[in-house]
Design a protein that fits this description.
Blueprint (H helix, E strand, L loop, with lengths): L12 H7 L3 H12 L14 E4 L4 E4 L5 E3 L13 H13 L6 H8 L4 H13 L12 E9 L18 E9 L4 E8 L5 H11 L5 E5 L13 E5 L1 H6 L8 H18 L7 H13 L4 H8 L62
Parallel strand pairs: 4-7, 7-8
Antiparallel strand pairs: 1-2, 2-3, 4-5, 5-6
Helix pairs in contact: 3-10, 4-5
Bound molecules: zinc ion (ZN).
Amino acid sequence: MGAQKRGDYPKNLGDFYRRFPDDAACFRYLVETRWPDGFRCPACGSGDARLMDQRRTWQCRACRKQTSATAGTVLHRSKLPLSAWFTAAYLMTSLKPGISALQLQGQLGLTRFETAWLLLHKLRRAMVNPDRSRLSGTVEVDETWIGGKQAGLKGGRQRKGRKAIEVVVAVERREKSLGRLRLEIIRDDGSETLYDFIKRSVEPGSLIVSDAWQGYSGIEPEVYGHQSVSQAAQKRAGGSPSAVPGVDQVTSNLKTWLRGTHHGVGADHLDAYLDEFVFRFNRRHYPMAGFATLLGLGAAQAPTTGDGILSPLTPERAVRRRGRATGLTSVRFPNPPLPAPSGPALDAAPGPATLA
Ligand SMILES: [Zn+2]
Protein backbone atom coordinates (compact mmCIF):
# COMPACT_ATOMS: atom_id res chain seq x y z
CA MET A 1 0.00 0.00 0.00
CA GLY A 2 1.07 3.56 -0.50
CA ALA A 3 1.73 4.30 3.15
CA GLN A 4 5.43 4.77 2.43
CA LYS A 5 5.04 6.87 -0.66
CA ARG A 6 6.02 10.46 -0.34
CA GLY A 7 3.70 11.65 -3.13
CA ASP A 8 0.68 10.48 -1.12
CA TYR A 9 1.23 12.91 1.63
CA PRO A 10 -1.11 15.93 1.69
CA LYS A 11 0.98 19.01 1.03
CA ASN A 12 -1.03 21.33 3.22
CA LEU A 13 -4.16 21.38 5.29
CA GLY A 14 -6.40 22.22 2.33
CA ASP A 15 -4.96 19.24 0.50
CA PHE A 16 -5.51 17.16 3.63
CA TYR A 17 -9.21 18.10 3.85
CA ARG A 18 -9.72 17.27 0.17
CA ARG A 19 -8.16 13.88 0.79
CA PHE A 20 -9.99 13.24 4.09
CA PRO A 21 -13.19 15.29 3.88
CA ASP A 22 -15.15 13.16 6.34
CA ASP A 23 -15.13 10.06 8.52
CA ALA A 24 -15.98 7.83 5.55
CA ALA A 25 -12.82 8.91 3.73
CA CYS A 26 -10.75 8.33 6.86
CA PHE A 27 -12.28 4.90 7.21
CA ARG A 28 -11.50 4.05 3.59
CA TYR A 29 -7.87 4.95 4.17
CA LEU A 30 -7.82 2.89 7.36
CA VAL A 31 -9.17 -0.18 5.57
CA GLU A 32 -6.88 0.23 2.55
CA THR A 33 -3.87 0.57 4.80
CA ARG A 34 -4.68 -2.39 7.01
CA TRP A 35 -6.01 -4.64 4.27
CA PRO A 36 -4.28 -3.54 1.07
CA ASP A 37 -5.64 -6.57 -0.82
CA GLY A 38 -9.14 -6.16 0.57
CA PHE A 39 -10.58 -7.40 3.86
CA ARG A 40 -10.24 -11.13 4.59
CA CYS A 41 -11.85 -12.83 7.54
CA PRO A 42 -9.06 -13.89 9.93
CA ALA A 43 -11.05 -16.99 10.92
CA CYS A 44 -12.00 -18.53 7.57
CA GLY A 45 -10.24 -16.40 4.97
CA SER A 46 -13.42 -15.40 3.20
CA GLY A 47 -13.43 -11.99 1.54
CA ASP A 48 -17.21 -11.73 1.77
CA ALA A 49 -18.01 -9.50 4.73
CA ARG A 50 -20.26 -6.59 5.58
CA LEU A 51 -19.66 -3.55 7.74
CA MET A 52 -21.79 -2.91 10.80
CA ASP A 53 -21.75 -0.80 13.98
CA GLN A 54 -21.36 2.49 12.19
CA ARG A 55 -18.76 0.93 9.94
CA ARG A 56 -16.41 -0.03 12.71
CA THR A 57 -16.81 -3.80 12.56
CA TRP A 58 -16.70 -6.38 9.77
CA GLN A 59 -18.98 -9.38 9.90
CA CYS A 60 -17.99 -12.37 7.80
CA ARG A 61 -20.89 -13.67 5.72
CA ALA A 62 -19.42 -17.17 5.65
CA CYS A 63 -18.61 -17.89 9.31
CA ARG A 64 -20.22 -14.80 10.95
CA LYS A 65 -17.07 -13.87 12.87
CA GLN A 66 -16.87 -10.20 13.73
CA THR A 67 -13.63 -8.30 13.30
CA SER A 68 -13.11 -4.76 14.50
CA ALA A 69 -11.63 -2.51 11.86
CA THR A 70 -9.91 -0.36 14.47
CA ALA A 71 -8.66 -3.01 16.92
CA GLY A 72 -4.99 -2.54 17.66
CA THR A 73 -5.00 1.06 16.49
CA VAL A 74 -5.04 4.21 18.56
CA LEU A 75 -8.57 4.84 17.26
CA HIS A 76 -10.05 1.78 18.92
CA ARG A 77 -12.99 2.50 21.25
CA SER A 78 -12.50 6.24 20.95
CA LYS A 79 -15.60 8.38 20.93
CA LEU A 80 -13.85 11.03 18.91
CA PRO A 81 -14.58 10.99 15.18
CA LEU A 82 -11.92 9.40 13.01
CA SER A 83 -11.44 12.76 11.33
CA ALA A 84 -10.34 14.37 14.61
CA TRP A 85 -7.67 11.71 15.08
CA PHE A 86 -6.58 12.03 11.46
CA THR A 87 -6.31 15.80 11.71
CA ALA A 88 -4.32 15.61 14.93
CA ALA A 89 -1.96 13.00 13.45
CA TYR A 90 -1.55 15.10 10.32
CA LEU A 91 -0.75 18.26 12.24
CA MET A 92 1.61 16.37 14.48
CA THR A 93 3.47 14.87 11.52
CA SER A 94 3.51 17.83 9.19
CA LEU A 95 3.99 20.94 11.25
CA LYS A 96 7.71 21.42 11.45
CA PRO A 97 7.67 22.45 15.08
CA GLY A 98 4.93 19.98 15.99
CA ILE A 99 1.83 21.14 17.76
CA SER A 100 1.04 21.89 21.37
CA ALA A 101 -2.11 20.74 23.12
CA LEU A 102 -3.28 24.31 23.39
CA GLN A 103 -2.90 24.84 19.64
CA LEU A 104 -4.67 21.58 18.87
CA GLN A 105 -7.52 22.50 21.18
CA GLY A 106 -8.00 25.65 19.14
CA GLN A 107 -7.62 23.91 15.78
CA LEU A 108 -10.18 21.21 16.55
CA GLY A 109 -12.47 23.49 18.50
CA LEU A 110 -12.31 21.25 21.53
CA THR A 111 -14.02 22.58 24.59
CA ARG A 112 -11.52 21.05 26.97
CA PHE A 113 -7.76 21.42 27.01
CA GLU A 114 -7.43 17.95 28.51
CA THR A 115 -9.08 16.34 25.51
CA ALA A 116 -6.48 17.80 23.19
CA TRP A 117 -3.69 16.98 25.61
CA LEU A 118 -4.78 13.36 25.91
CA LEU A 119 -5.19 13.01 22.16
CA LEU A 120 -1.64 14.22 21.55
CA HIS A 121 -0.23 12.00 24.24
CA LYS A 122 -1.97 8.94 22.86
CA LEU A 123 -0.50 9.68 19.45
CA ARG A 124 2.84 10.34 21.07
CA ARG A 125 2.79 6.86 22.60
CA ALA A 126 2.79 5.45 19.08
CA MET A 127 6.11 7.18 18.57
CA VAL A 128 8.01 4.64 20.62
CA ASN A 129 8.92 1.72 18.46
CA PRO A 130 10.39 -1.04 20.62
CA ASP A 131 11.65 -3.02 17.62
CA ARG A 132 13.56 -0.23 16.04
CA SER A 133 16.89 -1.17 14.57
CA ARG A 134 20.17 0.20 15.84
CA LEU A 135 22.08 3.02 14.24
CA SER A 136 25.02 2.09 12.05
CA GLY A 137 27.89 3.46 10.02
CA THR A 138 29.58 6.51 11.52
CA VAL A 139 27.68 7.57 14.63
CA GLU A 140 28.35 10.75 16.61
CA VAL A 141 27.61 10.51 20.34
CA ASP A 142 27.58 13.31 22.90
CA GLU A 143 25.68 14.43 25.99
CA THR A 144 23.75 17.64 26.57
CA TRP A 145 21.82 19.33 29.37
CA ILE A 146 18.15 20.11 28.89
CA GLY A 147 16.71 22.66 31.26
CA GLY A 148 18.36 25.95 30.68
CA LYS A 149 21.05 27.96 32.34
CA GLN A 150 21.56 27.92 36.07
CA ALA A 151 23.69 30.32 38.05
CA GLY A 152 26.57 29.13 40.21
CA LEU A 153 27.48 25.96 38.33
CA LYS A 154 31.15 25.12 37.93
CA GLY A 155 31.39 23.73 34.43
CA GLY A 156 29.41 21.33 32.29
CA ARG A 157 30.19 18.24 34.35
CA GLN A 158 28.78 19.41 37.68
CA ARG A 159 25.81 17.27 38.71
CA LYS A 160 25.28 18.15 42.37
CA GLY A 161 22.43 20.63 42.79
CA ARG A 162 21.84 20.79 39.06
CA LYS A 163 18.23 21.10 37.98
CA ALA A 164 18.71 20.34 34.31
CA ILE A 165 18.37 16.85 32.88
CA GLU A 166 21.19 15.19 31.01
CA VAL A 167 20.42 13.60 27.68
CA VAL A 168 22.66 11.50 25.47
CA VAL A 169 22.43 12.07 21.72
CA ALA A 170 23.50 9.67 18.94
CA VAL A 171 23.13 10.52 15.28
CA GLU A 172 24.33 8.84 12.09
CA ARG A 173 26.78 10.94 10.13
CA ARG A 174 26.29 10.55 6.41
CA GLU A 175 28.44 12.00 3.68
CA LYS A 176 26.46 15.20 3.25
CA SER A 177 23.65 14.93 5.75
CA LEU A 178 22.54 13.24 8.91
CA GLY A 179 20.83 9.85 9.15
CA ARG A 180 18.81 8.55 12.06
CA LEU A 181 18.77 9.78 15.63
CA ARG A 182 18.47 8.42 19.17
CA LEU A 183 17.95 10.41 22.37
CA GLU A 184 17.85 9.13 25.92
CA ILE A 185 17.79 10.63 29.39
CA ILE A 186 20.81 9.48 31.41
CA ARG A 187 21.36 9.52 35.15
CA ASP A 188 25.09 10.16 34.81
CA ASP A 189 27.69 10.45 32.09
CA GLY A 190 30.04 7.76 33.40
CA SER A 191 31.48 5.15 31.09
CA GLU A 192 29.10 2.41 32.23
CA THR A 193 25.99 4.46 31.45
CA LEU A 194 27.27 5.79 28.15
CA TYR A 195 28.51 2.43 26.90
CA ASP A 196 25.25 0.78 27.89
CA PHE A 197 23.39 3.33 25.75
CA ILE A 198 25.80 2.81 22.85
CA LYS A 199 25.41 -0.98 22.94
CA ARG A 200 21.62 -0.70 22.83
CA SER A 201 21.57 2.03 20.18
CA VAL A 202 24.42 1.33 17.79
CA GLU A 203 25.14 -1.73 15.65
CA PRO A 204 28.46 -3.45 16.48
CA GLY A 205 31.09 -2.71 13.87
CA SER A 206 30.06 0.92 13.60
CA LEU A 207 32.44 3.82 14.15
CA ILE A 208 31.65 5.92 17.22
CA VAL A 209 32.78 9.55 17.10
CA SER A 210 32.89 11.39 20.42
CA ASP A 211 34.78 14.15 22.17
CA ALA A 212 37.63 13.26 24.51
CA TRP A 213 35.43 12.83 27.61
CA GLN A 214 36.59 9.86 29.70
CA GLY A 215 33.02 8.55 29.76
CA TYR A 216 33.72 7.14 26.31
CA SER A 217 36.75 5.18 27.44
CA GLY A 218 34.58 2.11 28.08
CA ILE A 219 33.93 1.47 24.40
CA GLU A 220 35.37 -1.94 23.61
CA PRO A 221 37.72 -1.79 20.62
CA GLU A 222 36.75 -5.29 19.49
CA VAL A 223 33.09 -4.22 19.20
CA TYR A 224 33.23 -0.66 17.85
CA GLY A 225 35.62 1.61 16.08
CA HIS A 226 36.12 4.74 18.18
CA GLN A 227 37.33 8.14 17.10
CA SER A 228 37.85 10.34 20.13
CA VAL A 229 38.29 13.94 19.07
CA SER A 230 39.83 16.49 21.41
CA GLN A 231 37.99 19.72 20.75
CA ALA A 232 40.74 21.80 22.26
CA ALA A 233 43.39 20.19 20.08
CA GLN A 234 41.15 20.55 17.08
CA LYS A 235 40.63 24.23 17.75
CA ARG A 236 44.34 24.80 18.20
CA ALA A 237 44.93 23.13 14.85
CA GLY A 238 42.42 25.50 13.30
CA GLY A 239 40.01 22.69 12.44
CA SER A 240 36.29 22.39 13.00
CA PRO A 241 35.30 23.88 16.35
CA SER A 242 33.27 20.81 17.24
CA ALA A 243 34.09 17.12 17.53
CA VAL A 244 30.47 16.26 16.86
CA PRO A 245 28.89 18.85 14.53
CA GLY A 246 25.91 16.60 13.74
CA VAL A 247 25.01 16.23 17.40
CA ASP A 248 25.42 19.98 17.88
CA GLN A 249 22.97 20.66 15.08
CA VAL A 250 20.38 18.21 16.43
CA THR A 251 20.79 19.49 20.00
CA SER A 252 20.29 23.07 18.94
CA ASN A 253 17.10 22.17 17.01
CA LEU A 254 15.82 20.12 19.93
CA LYS A 255 16.26 22.96 22.42
CA THR A 256 14.66 25.49 20.10
CA TRP A 257 11.71 23.16 19.62
CA LEU A 258 11.24 22.50 23.34
CA ARG A 259 11.39 26.21 24.12
CA GLY A 260 9.31 27.38 21.19
CA THR A 261 6.51 24.89 20.80
CA HIS A 262 6.07 23.73 24.32
CA HIS A 263 7.41 26.69 26.28
CA GLY A 264 9.60 24.35 28.26
CA VAL A 265 8.73 20.85 29.33
CA GLY A 266 8.40 19.42 32.82
CA ALA A 267 10.89 16.72 33.76
CA ASP A 268 8.06 14.20 34.06
CA HIS A 269 7.23 14.45 30.39
CA LEU A 270 10.60 15.09 28.81
CA ASP A 271 10.84 11.41 27.81
CA ALA A 272 7.72 11.65 25.68
CA TYR A 273 8.89 14.82 23.98
CA LEU A 274 12.27 13.28 23.21
CA ASP A 275 10.46 10.35 21.59
CA GLU A 276 8.40 12.73 19.52
CA PHE A 277 11.47 14.63 18.38
CA VAL A 278 13.23 11.41 17.37
CA PHE A 279 10.14 10.12 15.59
CA ARG A 280 9.74 13.27 13.54
CA PHE A 281 13.44 13.55 12.81
CA ASN A 282 13.75 9.95 11.62
CA ARG A 283 10.68 10.21 9.40
CA ARG A 284 11.35 13.63 8.00
CA HIS A 285 11.63 12.12 4.52
CA TYR A 286 8.64 9.78 4.97
CA PRO A 287 5.80 11.83 6.43
CA MET A 288 3.05 9.47 5.22
CA ALA A 289 4.67 6.56 7.00
CA GLY A 290 4.85 8.71 10.12
CA PHE A 291 1.19 9.63 9.79
CA ALA A 292 0.10 6.00 9.46
CA THR A 293 2.34 4.88 12.30
CA LEU A 294 0.88 7.52 14.61
CA LEU A 295 -2.61 6.22 13.99
CA GLY A 296 -1.42 2.68 14.67
CA LEU A 297 -1.88 1.74 11.04
CA GLY A 298 1.74 1.59 10.03
CA ALA A 299 3.25 -0.85 12.46
CA ALA A 300 1.99 -3.24 15.08
CA GLN A 301 1.58 -1.00 18.08
CA ALA A 302 -0.22 -1.65 21.31
CA PRO A 303 -2.79 1.11 21.69
CA THR A 304 -2.85 3.00 24.92
CA THR A 305 -5.85 3.84 27.01
CA GLY A 306 -6.20 7.04 28.97
CA ASP A 307 -5.39 5.25 32.19
CA GLY A 308 -1.65 5.07 31.85
CA ILE A 309 -1.22 8.69 30.93
CA LEU A 310 -0.29 11.32 33.46
CA SER A 311 -2.22 14.51 33.78
CA PRO A 312 -0.87 17.61 32.07
CA LEU A 313 2.16 19.28 33.58
CA THR A 314 2.50 21.90 30.89
CA PRO A 315 2.27 25.62 31.63
CA GLU A 316 -1.45 25.09 31.42
CA ARG A 317 -1.21 22.93 34.52
CA ALA A 318 -3.91 25.05 36.09
CA VAL A 319 -6.28 22.82 34.19
CA ARG A 320 -7.43 20.30 36.73
CA ARG A 321 -8.67 16.90 35.90
CA ARG A 322 -12.32 16.50 36.68
CA GLY A 323 -12.63 13.04 38.14
CA ARG A 324 -11.43 10.24 35.93
CA ALA A 325 -13.31 11.44 32.89
CA THR A 326 -11.13 11.65 29.81
CA GLY A 327 -13.48 14.06 28.09
CA LEU A 328 -13.05 12.51 24.66
CA THR A 329 -16.57 13.37 23.62
CA SER A 330 -16.69 17.06 23.09
CA VAL A 331 -15.39 17.84 19.66
CA ARG A 332 -16.74 19.92 16.85
CA PHE A 333 -15.60 18.88 13.42
CA PRO A 334 -14.93 19.91 10.75
CA ASN A 335 -13.81 23.36 11.55
CA PRO A 336 -13.39 26.65 9.83
CA PRO A 337 -10.31 26.81 7.65
CA LEU A 338 -7.10 26.58 9.61
CA PRO A 339 -3.95 28.49 8.93
CA ALA A 340 -1.82 26.53 6.49
CA PRO A 341 0.94 24.59 8.20
CA SER A 342 4.46 25.78 7.60
CA GLY A 343 4.80 22.75 5.40
CA PRO A 344 6.19 19.25 5.66
CA ALA A 345 9.80 18.68 4.79
CA LEU A 346 8.96 17.95 1.17
CA ASP A 347 11.95 19.84 -0.07
CA ALA A 348 14.41 17.58 1.67
CA ALA A 349 16.45 15.01 -0.19
CA PRO A 350 15.33 11.38 -0.09
CA GLY A 351 16.75 9.66 2.92
CA PRO A 352 17.64 6.13 3.94
CA ALA A 353 15.33 3.23 3.26
CA THR A 354 15.28 2.15 6.88
CA LEU A 355 12.88 3.73 9.28
CA ALA A 356 13.53 3.91 12.95
ZN1 LIG B 1 -15.15 -15.97 8.27
